[in-house]
Amino acid sequence: MASLVKNGKRFGLIWSDSDRKPQQVRESLKTDDREKALNKKKELEWKYENIDENGNRKHDPWIKKWYERPNTSRSIGLKEAVEEFVRFKARSKGQRGWSDSVAKRETYVMRKFVREVGNKSVTDLTEQDLEDFYFRDGVTSNHTRNGDYISINTFLNWCKQKGYIERKPEYKPKKPQRKIPKFIHPEELSELIDYHLKTIYQAEKRGSVKPANNHSAWIVLGWMILAGTGMRPVELSKLKLSHVYDNYILIGEDFTTKVKSERNVPLLFEAGQAMDIITDERYRQLEHSMRDSRYLLGRKPNYAKQKLSREFTKAWEHVYTDKPKRTLYNLKDMFCVRFLSDDSVPTRSGMKLNDLKEILGHSSLETTQKYLKAIPFGTSIDGTIWDHPVLRWM
Known about the structure:
Elements: E1 2-7, E2 10-16, E3 24-28, H1 34-49, H2 78-91, H3 100-117, H4 127-134, H5 142-162, H6 186-206, H7 217-229, H8 233-238, E4 248-251, E5 263-266, H9 271-278, H10 281-286, H11 301-319, H12 330-341, H13 352-360, H14 365-368
Antiparallel strand pairs: 1-2, 2-3, 4-5
Helix pairs in contact: 2-3, 3-5, 6-11, 7-9, 7-11, 7-12
């Protein structure tokens, strides 16, 4: 039932039971003396096999370790416990505490947890509450779910240590089945761009936008660059003019995102046309936010990313009311499918899948292979959309 092991200087036990979840748990014996460890092992095994007057095991390491304090918890609400946990982490130093950057995200996740679950008692939390939070609306990334799991699990361990709960609910989100990329056809993107430009033109006629300002044209240029490079929106938002070269972009030179290494991304399809416009000095002088900005889009990264995403979603919902939802991130899927299916795209390694892996910064070719499942389409957007009056700046 229990195996004696030594972790560093101290002895411990590994309990195994194939009928329980998890099938194995560890328990420290809090001693470096082998004879004392063996005696404690016998004592705990005897207690595990025997039942008390309430019908429970006298010792159950799956519920509580022998050295843990008895539960003297008071009833505490989830919101109160979360705020106390946040204050504890903010005061703590070293590995027990949070850095400033980590604290911002973790505090957001914990308070989001309270809003989603409700301010119930921490003792009433269930596995279903955790599952509902990890798979809430708007969360589609397994990376985000794993981050949320680590945050919530740390909080629950703290609650158990404080005595607020005797047993924490156990639920770890499983990696969902890999989905087929949500491809956006070039004609659909063209319709979205046309809708957005017409919206600007109508605003000009109403007098709410100055004709010479062009303050919203950068949004469609950003969409085109994403569709022709496969960049993630956060990467485009952090891109500076110094990162742009004749026919490629250098990503990761002085910032990091999901991909930790530098990489060169070619300007394909409509990205070259959009880049020519947005880097032209005459255009940037007309665009007041770009005149003295070092950023390619002329805005601070967080604002640029949010604005691009909001306007894309807004345009899609107005133009395609009867089609499934698409987001700004799906422009990356659009690029990947066209890259693999368009025979006119040159290759460096002789194998397009390997080239695409390097462009996207994937660590594994298996991740890139999902784009092979999508319907191939090799047509780029017609450049005649740039005849719109808003962009007649040349």
